[in-house]
Specification:
This protein has 356 residues and is α/β, with parallel strands linked by helices. Helices cover 39% and strands 13% of the residues. It binds iron/sulfur cluster (2 copies).
Length: 356
Amino acid sequence: MPLLVRNDPDEPFDYEPTGAPCSSDVAKRATLTKSAILTAWGRIIRGRKPLLSIEITKECPLQCPGCYAYEPEHLGETPLRQLSDYRGSQLVDGVMALVRRHRPLHISIVGGEPLVRYRELSELLPELERMGIEVQLVTSAVRPIPAEWASLRCLHLVVSVDGLAPEHDLRRAPATYSRILQNMRGHQVIVHCTITRQQVLRPGYLAEFATFWSERPEARKIWFSLFTPQTGNESAERLTNDDRARALAELATFPKRFPKVHLSKQVLDGYRRPPASPAECIFAQTTLCLSADLATRITPCQFGGQPVCTECGCVASAGLAAIGRYKLAGLIPVSKIFSLSRGFGTLLTRQGEHQV
Ligand code: SF4
Ligand code: SF4
């Protein structure tokens, strides 16, 4: 997971969380917007959240400066390190019970560092693959990624990389560049960089990053998101409005210059106009985020605490915000339909609860 910044979640334009057996990237992209929206919409109407995000462990061997997962406000009352988490068959059974109960279309596995639980994941991931559930696993690649995971077609490995080697190695030791390059060998990963103020202040830095990873055969895609601050956070990573505008102007040129950079116009637009609050964030409203005890909810979104939505740089939120602005039949924005459906779904669920 990135620095202050484990916002590596779902790239909604890159795969289709339909629950159907995973197919090729091209086919997935071609059908995403219509069918994924409709499938998710169906779940929402039935009072369900179609996306699930799980902090699969509270452990992490890294100490990234400003990591929000271990900030006291992340989970509200109990800090992440004080939760009781699971391992072994208890973890495998616990996650599968959640999957059977919530029937998500897509799961994000984050941590802590998920690879700490690689043995359990080696049981879970093939099972989720059999169920046709798309899984995004966000890791620092601090230890070798098991070779057999390379054959899982529903698995999207996202490796968090905090800039070029000198900066990354300082922030993320022991997950240094030389180590992660070794640990991702044999895999095709999505490299994810969360843009911070320090990077924006160095002209050409982002392009250098894109150049480096474009040339690496292990990187099949490159994602950029923007640092999302917590209320009251005045860290060196926080972008000013000018920084943000400058970064977005530069990023807009990347897809043509660097074909591995996946950043659609819609996502860029989402970054330019983030939701004003969690209530307006389709991503927050459609994702159930659970912490390492598999019970504690992380609210209002995977960041926990009190994130500043108006400075949100989460790629999933940006992508879904963009989808939300589409107008069905040229008239009604999708976000309105989602919001009405959510209200209807909640009502149905409550009625169902009363009837039990
Ligand atoms: S790798 Fe670990 S310390 Fe670093 S941001 Fe992720 S959870 Fe936090
Ligand atoms: S807009 Fe707000 S609620 Fe949505 S992902 Fe960003 S910080 Fe979280």
